[in-house]
Amino acid sequence: GNGPLQRLQAETDAKGHIRCSIKNPLAKLPPCDNGFDVANAIGKAGFLNIIKDLGLKEPYCSTVQLQTSEIGDDIAYYLTTSEQVPSSVSLGVLLGSDAEVKIAGGFIIQALPGCDDEVIDQIEAKINALPGISSLLCDGESPGTILETIFAGFDCSEPESIPLVFRCSCNQRQVTGILKGMGPEELSSLAEKGEAVDVTCEYCRKAYRFSPDELSALRG
User: Looking at residue 166, what is its pLDDT?
Assistant: First the structure.
């Protein structure tokens, strides 16, 4: 987006491993409605890019324009328009006085093929009647109990529970490949300075050090 955060990026897999980064973590915006002004921090003009590795030759890629710059709203818009799956996404984060994350959670509800429109209307009405997701989480509600409220009167069961765990997949081989992509001229320029070069992962902040001799060897 064109806001002060500039770019947010998140990666996850089916096992609950997740890593994310933000280009500029300091938005320096005043609170909005007693909360953080997410939409203006991201910026009202920009794009949501989705990349899915489905195990095919090429990953699936799709891009949609930001609609409200509220993350949940824009993900729901993408799912409904690009994947043609009616979806509701609600996300909430409550930060403490020192900007630490006190509570974070949310839900995503999608209509399966053949779902009756009347059922969708009933679910939407229940979602719209809920207080804000941050308020519910702050009151001790879990995503599971929130979904029980939404699906009261419907036959439903709790799905499999998978804990989310931060894991970064960076490694020496990957970073070496990035450096090789710089080209021989730029690698020579770095090596000639006679100083080691540190490449820091934007996700986990781990630094990979390359000596001048190692940089020279990468020229091929």
Answer: 95
